[in-house]
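Worked example

This section walks through a single chain of length 170. The input is the sequence exactly as stored; nothing has been trimmed or padded.
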Amino acid sequence: MINKFQSLNNPKKELMRRWGLIFLFSTLALLVLFIPIPLLDTAPLNRHIRIEASMFQFDPGEVRVNPGDRVTVELVSTDVVHGLSLDGYDFELIADPGQSKTSTFIADKAGVFRFRCSVACGNLHPFMIGKMQVGPNLLLLRGIGLGLLSIAMAIFSLQHQFQTTVRMTS
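Given that input, the structure is written out below as tokens.
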């Protein structure tokens, strides 16, 4: 049992142990942030997405597709002239009231992209925004990984403080 606490008697060894743990957790954090995440490759699909535009909202407001999918968007305007412009892509549709307009593009860029009404349709027009997610949400996966890593580091830190306290009271 004395061997378990020998490093506590030697401040130099204790300092080296702490820096070693800091280096280990820092390295793991960098790996979680920057190492590519292997994803399941799915065959590109033909997707038909119907988006209804009405005063200051899109329905659905959030769309998910896979990278490489051939996406056909049908924009239906229910009240006034509305447009749909997709950030990051050269894609725009304009639909007249009661009419629909259809166009197709290939989702070849992964990430989260906003689509907006591109025709001034009223006072709240600037707030008429939707979201298209192409591929999985990698930021969420990396955030979960960093959260788990920080919990592990907190447990190691608390364990070390507990051992130091036990050693000092013995």
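What to look for: Residues 46-136 form a domain with the Immunoglobulin-like fold (CATH 2.60.40.420).
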